[in-house]
Every structure is written in structure tokens, then in C-alpha cells.
Amino acid sequence: MQRQVNGISARVLSSELKELELNGFIIKKVSVGYPVSIEYELLPYSHTLEELVGAMTRWGMQHRQKIKSEMASGGKSSGKK
Fold it and tell me: What pLDDT, on a 0 to 100 scale, did the predictor assign at position 3?
């Protein structure tokens, strides 16, 4: 399945995927043929991040409106909660 990642350049995506591979989170699988197919698979070590990523996702969802409004106003924060 081909997926495109919006909001990130091919160069940055490639760099990030290499880092994830070097750190044992993913494995790159290249299928020789025409066209060449590249797939990435999560390794068991990547699952150690599930709790952390879940917590960050929940935080982002809870604070989404505040973040959007601050971005719209040029990132100026009042410092208030």
C-alpha cells in the first residue's frame, strides 16, 4: 500500500526513517522489481513507545483548540492556563 506523508519533505522523511531504523524501531524492506517497492515494518521495540505516544496524543487532543488559536494569532501566548 502506497502512502504519502503530507507536510514533510521527502528528504526529511527519509532522514527520520533512517534514524528510526538505526534505533531499532523499524525495519526497511526493499522488493527488487519494477518499480522498486520499499516498505517499513514496526519492530517489537517500537511498541515500548505506545504509552508515551498515546499520552502525547491525548494531550494534543485536549489542547488542540488552544494551540490552533495561538498559531492563528502568531504564536503569542498569554501564559495563562
Answer: 67
Average pLDDT over residues 37-56: 95
Sequential DSSP letters for 29-76 = EEE-SSS-EEEEEE-GGGGGGHHHHHHHHHHHHHHHHHHHHHHHTTS-
> Residue 10 corresponds to which cell in the numbers above?
521527502
pLDDT in tens, 6-15: 888 889 999 9
Angle, CA 63 vertex, CA 57 and CA 67 arms, to 5°: 110
Name the one residue in this structure whose C-alpha cell is 521495540: 45
Segment (H or E) for 8: none
